[in-house]
What does this fold into?
Amino acid sequence: MPAVTVAQAAAALGVSTDTVRRRVQRGQLQESRDARGRLLVDLTGIAAIGPLPASAAAAEIAHLREQIENLQLELATRREEAQQAAQAQTELRRLVSQAQVLQAHLAGISLDSGEGGAVVAVRRPGFFGRIFRAP
It folds into this structure.
């Protein structure tokens, strides 16, 4: 049988592509590369390899379950970090808003509530003219 791609070998063996790659690494399957550098698998003598033994399959299932558990824990951690980042962002926005109000107050700009509770500056006539008047 000619060399086939990893996906074709996995389909022929009834296993995942990761399992095919592991078998190649263990030396259970012969490998080669095509002109593009893709991994090819030689399925000659594949009947001797056969499916995974029950103990190996059970070990792989246990390994995959452990990976799932680890990924679920990591996902929970990432969600918590995202929630904390959102809270920090909200607090930063609040502080920036307070700083802007204080800065406006110090500059003598009066502030009014606009639509939706937004704070808007109310310009006093001639205020900016005094600041930017040429000497």
Summary: Strands lie at 3-5, 30-33, 39-42, 110-113, 119-122. DSSP finds four helices and five strands in the chain. The two ends are 92 Å apart (CA to CA).
